[in-house]
Amino acid sequence: xxxxxxxxxxxxxxxxxxxxxxGRGQTYLDECPKSFVTGESxxxxxxFFVSRALGIPPSADMPARTADAFxxxxxxxxxxxxxxxxx
Length: 87
Description:
With about 90 residues, the chain is mainly α. It contains 3 helices and 2 strands; from the N terminus they run αββαα. It has 2 domains: about 1-35, no CATH class; about 40-85, no CATH class. The protein has helices spanning about 10-15, 40-55, 65-85; strands spanning about 20-25, 25-30. A two-stranded antiparallel sheet has the order 1-2. It starts with 11 loop residues before the first helix and ends with a helix.
């Protein structure tokens, strides 16, 4: 399964030829998406959705990396809501 999904922890030689293994809308990956999920990214997702649910606007005190993640998440969520593809 790891080879079939081209998991990122495998050496490049074992992953085989590049191909799409996951996709949603206009977003796709040629490697298992779990390879990209970190504790930090999960924390940012939680922070984004909690602040959104409570109506808390982004803060000027927020690190640039977090602000960038929030902008990307906001755009993706709005796109899915417009297209009716939320789960």
